[in-house]
Amino acid sequence: xxxxxxxxxxxxxxxxxxxxxxxxxxxxxxxxxxxxxxxxxxxxxxxxxxxxxxx
Length: 55
What we know:
By secondary structure, the chain is mostly loops. It is extended, with a radius of gyration of 14 Å.
């Protein structure tokens, strides 16, 4: 899955807070499980530089 996020015009970025809310809808009943692999998760700042997050 590829996701691109950007701030609304005139919004100032901060170092803390919610970056995104991801809502997933199931197609069938079953165990709920979602994970983010920090080894393959790639985040880029607006200037194109990588940055790390804590999971």
